């Protein structure tokens, strides 16, 4: 009996040792060299695997960082500048700083602002609805309210508000990965520069219809009146296809356009409440007027030329 | 035993409410909106502008390419504007608005009812005439007919199949055409046979239209080249590939056109339009449209000018019923719900169906119970439950691998699903995406 156990043990040990030797040599023979820096870069990344960088997950991004040897076109929106600085330190390269961004919804057509013209009864997906028709309101550019964006968000930063029927972005959680931009069939999301103290001004509308048509379908539609365009001192507003767009790189958050907009299509976020009109606002205007006047006129002329061409 | 296709299929309640109603001419509307894209392919280019006077049958938009079709004015009057408006696609599309004044036809168009049987047997001339008349497939797919009649190099048509199946529930426009316009229809079929240079034509008709089968059998008795084929009632037998399988037993390979098995399929409405174009010089400006529904006071078949708002049809059929829940352009299986009643009748509108509120409502979506009913009924042999899942999860390569592009969008899967899952909604979405991917890959 004991002999059997001893023989078995010897035989198994011999097989084990033999297998270990074979495996050792095979592993040496077929070893794939992997740059140890890839692992280091990956550790520096947030590990969200969201695909916001344009690669299939953090590992793929780390591989790309090591391979490219240049970080100019590579950026992790989740980790931001700090994370990229770490990556740069690992690789001994220089990271390009980018302004932190946040997703904003360019539609304010809530149930109150945008009356329904028909009922949608199909699959509850924006993509499926958009493939079928223009939407259950008069506006063919607006939010379809089925929440494809909220489903696409990996960071719990987008929620549908059942009262307005619109998604809401939680600024603190949004990492600007761009998943919602991809998910929205109406292209309503835009990654805008996070202003100082998260202050933002943007046109919450994408309606390209003529003013009357747009206004009829939605109370807060941009009607393309160009008033904001004319009042903007920084040339930050572009008019295109009856629609105003505020360039977040040029906008200095002066809020002049917000007051000017006749349909309240321009939204300001993160600002303290406005003071009731005192003599404070006119003052800088008076001050600026004298030197700025010819400049403003000139820019206005060019603006009208542009708009004529369009 | 009656012929039919083998794979899948369903049998929804037929509800052919307007089958016994003769075709009536609908009164001219006050104004029409004629979209420039009423066919598959490139949209036509508008030739008229605001203020122009037009006559019935005048060319108002020129074909925008080989796969495209001319558009003719369906009324006489003044062009109000060329602008965007909603059509049955659910999106604003460019079209021509015309205010109707009188009913003056373009010169050279024969509007009499006399039957002209003799035609010049010249394939090229016939195809040119069909092309000029802007004829497209009137079964609903609106594929330009002249393209179908010109098979690609190296392929030869062996037979012409005429689709008189009308397998969609409720619709009866083709049925009425076969009963009332049979002599003209047969001349149209002979013209098509001549254009394709084929010796044999089959008219496939489902067995729920015994009067049409008997009538056409009677008329085709002296002519051995045209044969009426009665078919077992089964949806979607009107699908091109299903009809070919049912009548000839041949199977069109995946991704191929019917011409690959030597068949060309045309609808009875198309054959009638071909007769009118070739023998009477009449372009495609009007078509037979069924207006129907369980609550509709007077379900009817109307001869309607293209561009007429569907509201006019609803009025003529006794107004919108109080319990109307959904208005569908086309039949209940493949038709599309419309968002308002201003949308126009186009070349592809075979019917307007007004569904009751209670029958139109979709049930709550439940989880898939893996019963595989959708697989059993799919006439293309696909796996609808799987295609829906991968489309929902946006795994397009899997969708392509499982032949999503072969789906004919007949809706049998959604119809039969006991869990009320929106199978076709997602498959259609996936099909559009995969189609785009394939197209961009080719470029």
Q: If you had to describe this structure to a student in words, what would you say it looks like?
A:
The complex is a heterodimer of chains A (310) and B (443). Chain A is α+β, with helices and mostly antiparallel strands and 310 residues long. Chain A has two domains: 56 residues, 3-methyladenine DNA Glycosylase II, Chain A, domain 3 (Orthogonal Bundle); 205 residues, no CATH class. Helix content of chain A is 39%, strand content 11%. Chain A has eleven helices and eight strands. Chain A has a two-stranded antiparallel sheet. In chain A, strand 2 and strand 3 form a beta hairpin. Chain B has 443 residues and is α/β, with parallel strands linked by helices. Chain B has three domains: 164 residues, Ubiquitin-like (UB roll) (Roll); 158 residues, Rossmann fold (3-Layer(aba) Sandwich), CATH 3.40.50; 70 residues, no CATH class. Chain B is 28% helix and 20% strand. Chain B has 14 helices and 17 strands. In chain B, the strands form four sheets. Chain B has a six-stranded mixed beta sheet. In chain B, helix 1 crosses helix 4, helix 4 crosses helix 7 and helix 11 packs across helix 14. The model of chain B has no long low-confidence stretch (mean pLDDT 93). Chains A and B meet through helix 5 of A and strand 16 and helix 14 of B.
């Amino acid at each position: 009996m004991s002999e059997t156990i001893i023989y078995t043990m010897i035989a198994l040990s011999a097989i084990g040792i033999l297998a270990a030797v074979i495996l050792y040599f095979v592993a040496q023979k077929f070893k794939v060299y992997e740059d140890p820096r890839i692992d280091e870069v990956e550790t520096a990344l947030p590990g969200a695997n969201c695909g916001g960088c344009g690669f299939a997950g953090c590992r793929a991004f780390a591989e790309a960082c090591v391979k490219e040897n240049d970080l100019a076109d590579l950026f992790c929106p989740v980790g931001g500048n700090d994370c990229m600085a770490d990556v740069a330190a690992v690789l001994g390269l220089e990271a390009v700083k980018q302004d932190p961004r946040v997703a904003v919804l360019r539609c304010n057509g809530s149930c109150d602002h945008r009356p329904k013209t028909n009922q949608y009864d199909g699959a509850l997906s924006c993509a499926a609805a958009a493939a079928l028709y223009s939407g259950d309101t008069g506006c063919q550019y607006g939010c379809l309210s089925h929440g494809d964006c909220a489903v696409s968000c990996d960071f719990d930063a987008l929620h549908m508000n059942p009262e307005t029927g619109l998604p809401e972005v939680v600024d603190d959680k949004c990492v600007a990965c761009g998943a919602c931009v991809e998910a929205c069939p109406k292209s309503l999301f835009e990654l805008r520069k996070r202003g100082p103290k998260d202050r933002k001004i943007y046109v919450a509308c994408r309606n390209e219809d003529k003013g009357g048509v747009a206004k009829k379908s939605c109370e807060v539609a941009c009607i393309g009146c160009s008033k904001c365009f004319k009042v903007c001192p920084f040339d930050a507003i572009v008019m295109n296809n009856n629609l105003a767009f505020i360039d977040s790189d040029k906008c200095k958050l002066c809020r002049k356009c917000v007051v000017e907009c006749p349909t309240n299509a321009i939204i300001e976020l993160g600002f303290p409440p406005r003071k009731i009109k005192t003599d404070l606002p006119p003052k800088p205007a008076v001050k600026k007027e004298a030197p700025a006047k010819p400049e403003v006129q000139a820019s206005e002329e060019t603006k009208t030329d542009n708009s004529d061409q369009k | 035993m009656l012929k039919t296709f083998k794979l899948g299929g369903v049998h929804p309640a037929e509800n052919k409410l307007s089958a016994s109603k003769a075709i009536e001419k609908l009164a001219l509307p006050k104004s029409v909106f004629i979209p420039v894209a009423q066919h598959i392919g490139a949209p036509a280019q508008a030739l008229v502008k605001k203020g122009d006077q037009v006559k019935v049958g005048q060319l108002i938009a020129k074909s925008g390419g080989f796969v495209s079709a001319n558009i003719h004015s369906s009324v006489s009057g003044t062009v109000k504007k060329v602008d965007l408006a909603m059509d049955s696609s659910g999106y604003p599309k460019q079209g021509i608005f015309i205010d109707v004044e009188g009913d003056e036809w373009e010169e050279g168009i024969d509007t009499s009812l006399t039957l002209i049987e003799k035609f010049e047997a010249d394939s090229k001339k016939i195809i040119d005439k069909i092309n000029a008349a802007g004829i497209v497939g009137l079964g609903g797919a609106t594929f330009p007919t002249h393209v179908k009649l010109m098979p690609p190099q190296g392929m030869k048509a062996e037979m012409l199949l005429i689709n008189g199946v009308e397998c969609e529930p409720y619709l009866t426009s083709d049925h009425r055409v076969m009963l009332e316009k049979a002599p003209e229809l047969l001349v149209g079929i002979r013209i098509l046979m001549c254009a394709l240079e084929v010796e044999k034509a089959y008219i496939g008709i489902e067995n729920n239209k015994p009067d049409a089968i008997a009538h056409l059998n009677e008329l085709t008795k002296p002519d051995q080249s045209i044969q009426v084929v009665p078919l077992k009632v089964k949806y979607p037998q009107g699908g091109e590939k299903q009809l070919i399988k049912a009548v000839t037993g041949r199977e069109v390979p995946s991704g191929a056109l019917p011409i690959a098995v030597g068949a060309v399929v045309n609808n009875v409405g198309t054959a009638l339009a071909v007769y009118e174009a070739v023998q009477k010089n009449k372009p495609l400006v009007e078509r037979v449209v069924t207006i129907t529904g369980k609550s509709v006071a007077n379900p009817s078949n109307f001869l309607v000018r293209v561009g007429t708002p569907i509201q006019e049809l609803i009025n003529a059929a006794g107004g919108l019923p109080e319990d109307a829940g959904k208005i569908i352009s086309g039949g209940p299986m493949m038709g599309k719900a419309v968002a308002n009643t201003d949308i126009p009748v186009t070349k592809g509108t075979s019917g307007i169906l007004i569904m009751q509120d209670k029958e139109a409502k979709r049930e709550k979506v439940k989880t898939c119970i893996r019963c595989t009913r959708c697989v059993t009924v799919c006439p293309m042999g696909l796996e609808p439950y799987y295609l829906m899942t991968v489309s929902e999860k946006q795994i397009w390569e899997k969708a392509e691998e499982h032949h999503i592009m072969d789906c004919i969008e007949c809706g049998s899967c959604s119809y039969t699903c006991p869990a009320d899952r929106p199978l076709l909604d997602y498959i259609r979405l996936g099909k559009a995406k995969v189609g785009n991917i394939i197209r961009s890959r080719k470029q």
